Amino acid sequence: MIRSFKEDDMTDVRALLSNAGLGDHLLDTIINSKQFFVFYDQEGIKGISYYSIDDEGEESIAQLNVVVDPKYRLKGIGTILYNEMEALLTRDDPDFVSVYLESEQSIIFTEKMGFVRWWGSSELIFTGGPFPDPNIEFIKFEEQYFEKFLSVVQDCYYDLHVKNDIKPYVATEHIVRKYKLHNKDRVYLVVHEGEIIASVTTGDGEVDNLMVAPSHQGKGYGRKALQFALNKLLKEGCKEIRICYVEGNEDAEKLYTSVGFKPLHHTHVYRKFL
User: Which contacts of 200-203 are long-range, i.e. CB under 8 A and separated by 24 or more positions?
Assistant: First the structure.
């Protein structure tokens, strides 16, 4: 049977996530979703499904997830949960539905539900030691650089977003502030004569948003920025450092692997137009 999530379900949901190899870090996302259903019987909760709507860009995108306890998979529970959610989310009239997948079994199920592959992202991990000082000055982001920072983001990501049909192709001020500057105290810039040459962000054991202005690419600034970020995180005590890139960004892949990053896992993003 299917019903909406109740607070009393929390213990069973935690157990289900653990059995599925997922952590408690998902709980806030799940509980705060627009719709959250559980599949249950007298033996307890065997599956959950939830979705949220992102309508901040040019398109309204519903992100849907279905998780079934591994012991009860291939019994139709995932299909029941998905169909229930799809019927509900059509009322929100999104442009399409997206799902993020890592396992082959999930991909098979998703394609069975009518989804097609959209784009992908690889996550790499670094466990090495420090690098020589890159001998270049990095300064913290300041608001006076915002317009130039916005321009660099737009120039660096436009072609990749067009290639993968990720909209908006030209990042808006709102998107840049929310996704590129959400941790602006950890954003570092290389600035020369008032122009931003490169930028990199250090997070919680991760390097993010490594960018080099197109007019300065191919001159080693990306490597210097990456090594700067790695050294900073290593000094902070990080033993493992992660970085992600959207597939099709061959230059990023070559750079990251050349300094010692190793493949960790790959995320496949699928979508379905209703």
Answer: 200/138, 200/225, 200/226, 200/228, 200/229, 201/229, 202/229, 202/232, 202/233
